[in-house]
Design goal:
223 residues; mainly alpha; 2 domains; 8 helices; elongated
């Protein structure tokens, strides 16, 4: 038996966009840009309240109990329209986690050579400087300044994720099994691993050829 009713709720994109504004103002600090959780709050794409919700039917009563918002106010003050908009936004995030989502659709990209990508990763690319060890992360040894992170700065109007954290810094994301966890970066700004490689290429001025980009993406998919 599934987590919720048999009828699959539709997502109104316009309402989801309105919900995104409420989310950025009141929820993002704890639950993250994509509602997948942070150190301060749980992943809501797996929440039974969200999965069972139909246009605010479950979310509304939960919030009306007075859940604390990041602004310091109470969720009980949210209007019915705001709750419905949030419901559409969260359902959109849930749908993004499914294999049928556009995030998982095959892109028109060059097929790479994982072995060549591994050589670049450990050599010229210096990727292993941070993404090292069995889990491909140095998170247990150090944290990184905002200036080191290619997904910064955030989209217009969205404060830096690091500025909302206790350390004001970032940890290196583990890469083991990374192919299973799209979208990428803390804010979901890269839909595919090819997009991740492209972001690094642009921000770090790596000068990758199309073949090197394909090789590196293929290697990441093999981890």
């Amino acid at each position: 038996m599934g987590a919720g009713p048999g009828d699959a709720p539709y997502v109104d994109s316009a309402l989801a966009d309105k919900g995104k504004s409420v989310w950025a103002a009141e929820c993002i600090n704890c639950h993250g840009t994509q509602a997948r959780g942070t150190d301060n709050g749980p992943n809501l794409t797996r929440s039974l309240v969200v999965l069972r919700d139909r246009y605010g039917s479950e979310l509304g009563p939960f919030l009306k109990k007075g859940h604390k918002l990041q602004s310091g106010g109470s969720a009980a003050a949210l209007t019915d329209d705001q709750v419905v908009n949030l419901a559409h936004f969260l359902r959109q995030r849930v749908n993004d986690s499914f294999r049928g989502s556009p995030l998982f659709q095959a892109q028109n990209v060059l097929t790479g050579d994982a072995k060549a990508g591994e050589a670049y990763y450990n050599g010229e690319g210096k990727c292993a400087t941070c993404h090292s060890g069995d889990q491909f992360t140095d998170a247990n040894q150090r944290l990184h300044a905002v200036s080191d992170v290619v997904s910064e700065p955030e989209a217009a109007g969205v404060p830096s994720y690091a500025s909302r954290s206790a350390t004001r810094t970032y940890r290196t994301s583990p890469l083991r099994g990374i192919w299973q966890h799209a979208p990428y970066f803390h804010n979901g700004s890269a839909a595919t691993l090819e997009d991740v490689v492209s972001a690094y290429d642009k921000r770090k001025s790596l000068g990758l050829t199309a073949q090197q980009s394909g090789d590196l993406a293929q290697y990441l998919k093999s981890l």
